[in-house]
Amino acid sequence: MTDSETNNLAEMTIEDLLRHWPETAVIFHQHHMACPGCAVAPFYTVVDAARVYGLPAEQLLAEIQDVIATIND
Fold first, then answer.
1. CA-based diameter of the chain, in Å?
2. Distances in Å between the alpha carbon of 28 and those of 6, 17, 31, 64?
């Protein structure tokens, strides 16, 4: 992904992310995050979720990008 695509991903809401790439839900489950199905998923960005769960945003974004890359291959 380009830097622009990474920034867009960081600013994307959890709901939009899961709508575009439902396969990314596995990343949230691996981190024991309740984001898929959460009532605030339409409002929280990926970075917001990382902050709430005390994860480095860069790590979470990289893991999500890895899943998206496998989908697009």
1. 32
2. 18, 11, 5, 9
Q: pLDDT 10s digit of each residue in the chain, 73 long? A: 555 555 689 999 999 999 999 999 999 999 999 999 999 999 999 999 999 999 999 999 999 999 999 987 6
Domain that holds residue 53: 3-72
Exposed / middle / buried, residue 34 (Cβ in 10 Å: 0-12, 13-18, 19+) = middle
- The total domain count for the chain is 1
Residue 49, domain CATH: 1.10.3910
Q: Model's pTM, two decimal places? A: 0.85
